[in-house]
Amino acid sequence: MSDNAKSEPQRAEHQQGEGRAYWYLRGVLRSFSVPGLVLTSAFIGFASLARDAGLSLVQTVFMTGMIWALPAKVVLVGAILAGSSLPATALAVALSSVRLAPMVVALMPEMRTPRTRPWVLYLLSHFVAITSWVLAMESLRSVPREMRTTYYAGLGSTLVLANMIVVALVFLLASHLPPQVSAALFFLTPIYFLTSLWGSARERAGHVAMILGLASGPLFRLLMPGFELLAAGLIAGGAAYAWHRAQRRKEVVG
Amino acid sequence: MSFDAIDTWWWPFVFILIAGWAATDGWRFLGVYLGGKLSEESDLLVFVRCVATALVAAVIANLVVFPGGALADSPLLLRIVAAIIAFSAYLLTRKNILLGILAGEAVLLSGLFLL
User: Fold this and answer.
1) What digits encode the pLDDT tens for the residues A93-106?
2) How far is A90 from chain B (nearest CA, A)?
3) What ipTM was assigned to the predicted interfaces of this complex?
4) Same structural domain, A171 and A130
5) Are residues A250 and A161 in the same domain?
6) CB–CB of B23/A95 below 8 Å?
7) CB-CB under 8 Å, B31 with A102
8) In angstroms, rounded to a whole number, what is the distance separating the alpha carbons of residues A192 and A220?
């Protein structure tokens, strides 16, 4: 099939031209899904948290667009509430966001082609946060490789823009929510990730990593507060990888 | 040098840019740089996926065990039971995310209103 496309460059180009808009739109539509809805609910909860903390509408919308990852924003608002200094706040946010690096490392080879320009990948990496990462790891496999960056651009930009609007609307419209409703909105995020992370695993080791990570998050929070995510990632992830290697050796031998 | 330290309109935005944007996109850009050196089949990538998955799982568990906001006032046991029921419902319904979420929220909300 690829030989065919090479021998007819004009037709291939034409098909690609049509394909870009189609796959961008497919990405946009993918964001209007259960995960997108859950994320939006979590942002309703976040916006009311930010408003209670005394932040302005413009500041909160700006924060949503520039940071995007929800846990990092919750840490930032917490530090602002606590009156932390700029360096201490930056350190706390950076520590809560280390996971973004391995998430991006895992995602990039799925999207990249030999012809992908680096600035496209740097730009798209801004959209990486748990929801778009899980959605992408799930759906990119069914997208033609050439169209994956386009697809992810549609998915990521729609999620960011839609939630910037949602944050603004919460500031403009919502009166204070009843505490049970806020609690239920906050709870949506962890239980959504709990289910979707399981489904996005590539190999059994992903499930092992998830179970060990769930157990080690709170454990390391108590043992080494501030470094719990780093420790949980390296130790639980490392153990899952060791399990993966041991399983494979067993397969080869047995 | 806190968020309220300098009384101008632009200081909060500078604060958000340095403590927020640089502290998150720095990791993302590092990821693109390092990801460019790995192929999709690389065994190292299995390790990276394991670390990323464990990190996200740790975030999830901490959101349940040590939540912020309105959820902080609910009993720990209720949150853990609701999360376990959500995950069990998800597995029992052949990985239906929506039903898993509804089951978990139903447990949490009934607990909050009854307790």
Assistant:
1) 887 787 898 899 98
2) 4
3) 0.81
4) yes
5) no
6) no
7) yes
8) 23
